[in-house]
Recover the amino acids of this structure.
């Protein structure tokens, strides 16, 4: 029962460094998404994918890249880390049709940019 | 512009009493609403949902009410238990539009023994 697995759980970066946050799900879900959670801001959608090879921007996509080469994996790349990207990042997945299939979330990656 | 609003950052209730968490939305195209619960250091977990064709949905101790004319929904927890202490997020989606779930900022519920 792995569900949605995010790695790493914690990461500290210096400004300007790049890194990839990993997300994998074993439920054969078509829909995957990345959110960031900041204090007092709730969850904001960064990027999402409705299937392998298809990605689209969410509410706050700047500074992030995604790709979806397989159904299982949906990595999030920070191209040049900035202190404003200090946040907790959540990956989620579901079957298509969010109304019938609520999203399953990973436990998050806590990222600090110095 | 915030499309889903949870205006109470926190709520404190006594064990056994009712907890009422409120949520307002501005986008009239939203037609499906969900509540998620989040404990510290964990991801959100789905709690209950409601379609815009209904005005009430129950699941055990949890009931969600929807007032479309007021663009308002509420989550009732009866009776409240200490294990219900968590952050509750309201979320909404336009099923006929983009597949994007829009979240509120959350309400932290504390249930005191």
């Amino acid at each position: 029962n792995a569900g949605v697995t995010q790695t790493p759980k914690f990461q500290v970066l210096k400004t300007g460094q790049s890194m990839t946050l990993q997300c994998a799900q074993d439920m054969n879900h078509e829909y995957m998404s990345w959110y960031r959670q900041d204090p007092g801001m709730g969850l904001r959608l960064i990027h999402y994918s409705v299937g392998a090879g298809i990605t689209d921007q969410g509410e706050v996509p700047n500074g992030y890249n995604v790709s979806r080469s397989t159904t299982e994996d949906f990595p999030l790349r920070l191209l040049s880390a900035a202190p404003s990207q200090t946040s907790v990042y959540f990956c989620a997945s579901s079957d298509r049709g969010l109304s019938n299939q609520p999203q399953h979330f990973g436990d998050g990656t806590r990222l600090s940019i110095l | 512009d915030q499309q889903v609003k949870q205006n109470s950052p926190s709520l404190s209730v006594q064990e056994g009493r009712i907890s009422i968490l409120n949520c307002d939305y501005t986008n009239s195209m939203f037609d499906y609403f969900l509540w998620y619960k989040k404990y510290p250091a964990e991801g959100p977990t789905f709690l209950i949902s409601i379609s815009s064709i209904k005005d009430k949905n129950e699941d055990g101790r949890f009931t969600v009410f929807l007032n479309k004319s007021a663009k308002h929904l509420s989550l009732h927890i009866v009776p409240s238990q200490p294990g219900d202490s968590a952050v509750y997020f309201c979320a909404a989606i336009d099923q006929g539009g983009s597949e994007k779930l829009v979240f509120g900022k959350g309400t932290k519920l504390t249930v005191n023994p």
